[in-house]
């Protein structure tokens, strides 16, 4: 299964080169989609930590994206720099995610799904109803794009590279995390919690941690989302986004490092590829997901892996 | 408020299941030229076939062996599929749905009660009574319960497990069809209705107890009543949050549901 | 491990698909509209109205000899998606953009159209859209700041109500209407004694009706989208609500009457645009629409139809395809049906992009919208 180290490095270099070259020759719309892909990938990486590595179903990821986006929108429209939003949103989501993890210690599977769902609904209602803070259904407009060390990211292309840069940092951090003892503990937790416990892994702490870190990445995605769209309102962070992120992780391949990248690409770019089908693309997408789940629940990357196996 | 979850798996498309039979009926009337009662029968038959048999064969059977998570995801996709399918091939806007009975009101002293609501309550109680009797009072029903609790043991005891599971799906389909016909005259038939309904169904099922038919009814009533009281006397802006809080409380403190007994109950 | 990388690289290559160039013999008027999600009904109406107008114009040789090409894209009733779609429309070098209808979406993407200096004809009615100093946004129907005073006068002068209850849908459309309406009520010394927020897509209105009924107001103002209005009307009839139900087009529209059935009878209010207007041109449009698409259009159908003809008229007046000049020409422009039959009713755009037209007081009688009074244009 293991590839030679240099082959993997070459593949990675090609992928990065493609991502850097991709926006040239694209119109602003194409660049916008790529930026959206980068942002969604960050949120999906976070969900993949909770779902794919720690095995907990969370329907609250959209809520964290929302918290991040509102933090960024509120701070930057008041003239604060974006990095302050990064700090605050990450910290906030870490804490809230940690707290939300507590029910996960008591209940599992679909019960947990509904606890997180309830939390997401509550966040949505607060974003909508607490008008003094969030401007309610009117949303917040005119969110500025950041300037980093004199480099203005106002133009679509510049902002895309900014997104790509953040994505690279997040990916590197996630890569390191999964390979660290923490990451192994997460996986042990998913595979066999009892054994993990008996091996001295503090299951409580690691479950909470998986939740907290996954949520924080959702917050980071939100901080990126706000200046990307430059307008946010509550419905963008409702249940639909959570379900969508869940589908992204599963379609790409949950528990695979690159799963979220691929899943987000399918979800964000699919409507473009299926343009010919006009209004039918969602139907086709849904059918595709159902068939994928029936034949290969480990997602596209699981499928690719399985296709490779017989040849070895 | 009248939905039941008899299968043990989580189904994110349950709300869409309730939405769909009403459209079967409308389609039967529009394209098949059937009269309303005939169309209801056709709708019921289609619901049994599609939401019972086909759902089990095409969606659940191939996936369940992979575990619960893929199935959950698949039902999420199924919900999108059904919703978009109705929108694309029938109509995107809400449709009026004929009522099978009078829409007049009865004046009982100062209170005004609509005949519609009375019929709904009567049908629901009758359906639950029947289901209770079927599950507890007949041989097939008891076999189904045994299957639900311990398929392996049931098989050893000579119960045709496969057929029992199929029955469960068919009953679920019949119930959603019934619910669909009951509420559509009031709620109108629209492709997005499932989103709202599915959530309520789950909350009701969990609050009442997943493995208890009676529990689901009590849960449904409780959620319905609390929801309406909150909206009427407190804050309608936060009404959606209240059933969910109830849900969290139940999950954390009484995961087996208010009426549900702990899992180790025996038949 | 390798398979993972291959998958990711393949995904990246597919992302490289680029949009193709636009042909030059046509004039590009993209329709960016709600074709799915909560706004699907309004959006589909708007689109179909626009499509009829475009086909009619193309059959007669187009605008200044150029055929209109109108690519459609779906905003999914989601502001984020609408932004992407408008960006895509702008990449295609459009002459104007038609849509969207949802105010939230318009607020996101009108900034883009402004930056690109593309005139945008929207179906949105939220009050603040034309108050942001955007020179490229034009309405195709009354904004809330125009329609609410008319309703307020109606409640004061005709109903002589001293108190009202408001039921509104908690999205930007409903909230905007409710805020504007409350202000108008305060200005007329009419008390708002119940203020009930409802959810978009809500199906059960029992509790809301209990609350409204308990308030015992002289009149009830209902400001929700069409389907919720119908559900509310049914529930109100069931619980025997007696006070007059007052609303806008979203309470008195044909779709609401069809859905609510008998329960819609007696609802009254102000309608800015209606296909039931006692104007032959409007009725002819209604019949044409119904014949082609097999359903009755609502006011959004008229919005889409007249928007296209407004662009045609203004362009022919200029004599060339100049976006900036078009935006300038639209300001203060009055189009009469004698000059341009497709406009259906005389319309005037002011400096902010707001539209002025005659409007109607209507009532639902025997399952039909009946026009009671015709209100003159505000500017007269």
CATH architecture of chain A: Orthogonal Bundle
Q: What's the total number of strands of chain B?
A: 2
Determine the mean pLDDT of chain A: 83
Radius of gyration of chain B equals 19 Å
Range of strand content of chain A: under 5%
Biggest sheet: strand arrangement of chain B: 1-2
Number of helices of chain B: 10
- The strands making up the biggest β-sheet of chain A line up spatially as 1-4
Strand content of chain B: under 5%
Question: What about the largest sheet of chain A?
Answer: 2 strands, antiparallel
Which stretches of chain A are poorly predicted, pLDDT < 50 over at least 5 residues?
Answer: none
Euclidean distance between termini CA atoms of chain A: 9 Å
Largest beta-sheet details of chain B: 2 strands, antiparallel
The chain-level structural class of chain A is mainly alpha
What does this structure look like?
The complex is a heterotrimer of chains A (312), B (267) and C (380). Chain A contains 14 helices and four strands. Chain A is mainly α and 312 residues long. In chain A, the strands form two sheets. Chain A has a two-stranded antiparallel ribbon. Chain A has a two-stranded antiparallel ribbon with strand order 2-3. The longest helix of chain A has 27 residues, at 203-229. The relative contact order of chain A is 0.17. The model of chain A has no long low-confidence stretch (mean pLDDT 83). Chain B is mostly helical and 267 residues long. Chain B has a domain at 14-191. Chain B has ten helices and two strands; from the N terminus they run H-H-H-E-E-H-H-H-H-H-H-H. In chain B, a hairpin with a 2-residue loop joins strand 1 (105-108) and strand 2. In chain B, helix 2 runs antiparallel to helix 3, helix 2 crosses helix 7 (161-187) and helix 5 crosses helix 7 (161-187). The longest helix of chain C has 20 residues, at 40-59. Chain C is an alpha/beta fold. Chain C is globular, with a radius of gyration of 22 Å. Chain C folds into two domains: 26-142 and 279-349, Response regulator (Rossmann fold); 145-271 and 360-375, 3-Layer(aba) Sandwich (Rossmann fold), CATH 3.40.50. At the A-C interface, helix 1, helix 2, helix 12 and helix 14 of A face helix 1, helix 3, helix 4 and helix 6 of C.
């Amino acid at each position: 299964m293991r590839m030679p180290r240099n082959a993997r490095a070459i593949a990675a270099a090609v992928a990065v080169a493609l991502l850097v070259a991709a926006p040239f020759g694209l119109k602003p719309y194409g660049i916008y989609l790529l930026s959206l892909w980068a942002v969604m990938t960050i949120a999906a990486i976070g969900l993949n930590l909770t779902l794919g590595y720690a095995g907990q179903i969370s329907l609250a990821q959209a809520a964290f994206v929302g918290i991040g986006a509102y933090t960024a929108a509120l701070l930057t429209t008041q003239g604060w720099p974006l990095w302050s939003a990064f700090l605050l949103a990450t910290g906030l989501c870490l804490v809230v995610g940690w707290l939300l993890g507590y029910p996960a210690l008591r209940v599992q599977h679909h019960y947990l799904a509904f606890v997180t769902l309830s939390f997401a609904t509550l966040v949505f209602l607060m974003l909508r109803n607490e008008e003094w803070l969030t401007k309610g259904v009117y949303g917040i407009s005119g969110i500025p794009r950041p300037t980093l060390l004199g480099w203005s990211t106002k133009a679509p292309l510049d902002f895309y590279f900014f997104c790509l840069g953040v994505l690279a940092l997040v990916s590197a951090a996630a890569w390191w995390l999964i390979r660290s003892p923490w990451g192994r503990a997460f996986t042990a937790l998913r595979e066999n919690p009892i054994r993990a416990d008996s091996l001295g892994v503090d299951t409580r702490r690691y479950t909470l941690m998986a939740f907290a870190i996954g949520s924080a990445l959702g917050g980071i995605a939100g901080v990126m989302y706000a200046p990307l769209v430059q307008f946010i309102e509550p419905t963008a962070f409702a249940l639909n986004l959570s379900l969508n992120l869940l589908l992204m992780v599963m379609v790409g391949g949950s528990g695979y490092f690159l799963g979220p990248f691929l899943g987000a690409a399918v979800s964000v770019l699919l409507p473009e590829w299926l343009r010919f089908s006009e209004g039918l693309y969602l139907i086709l997408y849904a059918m595709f997901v159902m068939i994928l789940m029936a034949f290969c629940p480990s997602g596209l990357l699981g499928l690719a892996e399985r296709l490779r196996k017989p040849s070895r | 408020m009248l939905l039941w979850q008899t299968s043990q798996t989580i189904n994110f498309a349950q709300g869409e299941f309730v939405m769909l039979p009403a459209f079967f009926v409308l389609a039967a009337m529009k394209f098949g030229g059937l009269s309303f009662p005939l169309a209801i029968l056709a709708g019921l038959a289609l619901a049994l076939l599609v939401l019972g048999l086909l759902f089990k064969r095409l969606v659940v059977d191939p996936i369940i062996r992979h575990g619960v998570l893929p199935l959950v995801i698949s039902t999420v996709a199924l919900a999108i599929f059904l919703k978009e399918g109705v929108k694309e091939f029938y109509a995107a806007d809400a449709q009026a749905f004929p009522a099978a009975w009078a829409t007049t009101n009865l004046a009982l002293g100062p209170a005004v009660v609509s005949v519609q609501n009375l019929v709904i309550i009567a049908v629901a109680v009758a359906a639950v009574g029947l289901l209770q009797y079927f599950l507890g009072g007949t041989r097939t029903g008891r076999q189904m319960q045994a299957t639900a609790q311990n398929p392996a043991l049931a098989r050893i005891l000579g119960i045709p497990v496969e057929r029992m599971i199929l029955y469960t799906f068919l009953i679920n389909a019949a119930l959603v069809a019934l619910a669909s016909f009951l509420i559509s005259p009031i709620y109108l038939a629209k492709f997005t209705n499932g989103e709202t309904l599915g959530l309520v169904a789950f909350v009701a099922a969990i609050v009442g107890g997943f493995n208890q038919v009676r529990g689901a009814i009590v849960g449904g009533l409780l959620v319905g009543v609390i929801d309406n009281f909150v909206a009427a006397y407190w804050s309608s802006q936060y009404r959606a949050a209240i059933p969910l809080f109830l849900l969290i409380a139940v999950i954390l403190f009484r995961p087996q549901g208010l009426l549900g007994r702990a899992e180790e109950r025996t038949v | 491990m390798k398979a993972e990388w291959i998958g990711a690289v393949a995904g990246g290559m597919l992302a490289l698909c680029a949009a193709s160039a636009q042909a030059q013999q046509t004039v590009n008027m993209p329709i960016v509209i709600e074709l799915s999600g909560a706004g699907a009904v309004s959006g589909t109406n708007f689109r179909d109205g626009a499509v009829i107008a475009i086909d009619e114009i193309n059959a007669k040789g187009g605008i200044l000899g150029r055929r209109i090409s109108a690519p459609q894209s779906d905003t999914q009733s989601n502001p984020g998606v609408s932004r992407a779609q408008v960006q895509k429309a702008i990449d295609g070098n459009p002459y104007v953009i038609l849509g969207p209808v949802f105010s939230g979406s318009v607020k996101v993407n009108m900034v883009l159209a402004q930056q690109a200096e593309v005139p945008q004809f929207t179906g949105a009615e939220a009050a603040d859209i034309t108050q942001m100093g955007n020179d490229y946004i034009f309405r195709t129907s009354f904004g809330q700041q125009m329609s609410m005073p008319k309703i307020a006068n109606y409640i004061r002068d005709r109903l002589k109500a001293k108190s009202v209850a408001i039921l509104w849908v908690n999205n930007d459309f409903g909230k905007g209407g409710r805020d504007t309406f409350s202000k108008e009520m305060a200005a007329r010394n009419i008390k708002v004694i119940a203020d009930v927020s409802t959810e978009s897509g809500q199906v059960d209105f029992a509790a809301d009706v209990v609350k409204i009924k308990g308030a015992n107001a002289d009149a009830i103002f209902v400001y929700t989208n069409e389907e919720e209005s119908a559900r509310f009307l049914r529930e109100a009839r069931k619980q025997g609500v007696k006070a007059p139900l007052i609303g806008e087009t979203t309470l008195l529209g044909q779709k609401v009457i069809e859905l609510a059935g008998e329960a819609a009878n007696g609802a009254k209010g102000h309608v800015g645009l209606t296909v039931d207007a006692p104007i032959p041109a409007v009725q002819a449009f209604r019949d044409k629409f119904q014949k082609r698409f097999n359903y009755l259009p609502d006011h959004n159908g008229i919005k889409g139809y007249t928007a296209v003809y407004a662009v045609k008229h203004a362009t022919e007046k200029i004599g060339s395809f100049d976006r900036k000049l078009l935006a300038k020409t639209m300001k203060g422009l009055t189009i009469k049906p004698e000059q341009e039959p497709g406009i259906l009713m005389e319309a005037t755009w002011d400096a902010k992009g707001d539209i002025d037209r005659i409007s109607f007081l209507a009532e639902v009688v025997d399952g039909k919208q009946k026009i009671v009074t015709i209100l003159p244009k505000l500017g007269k």
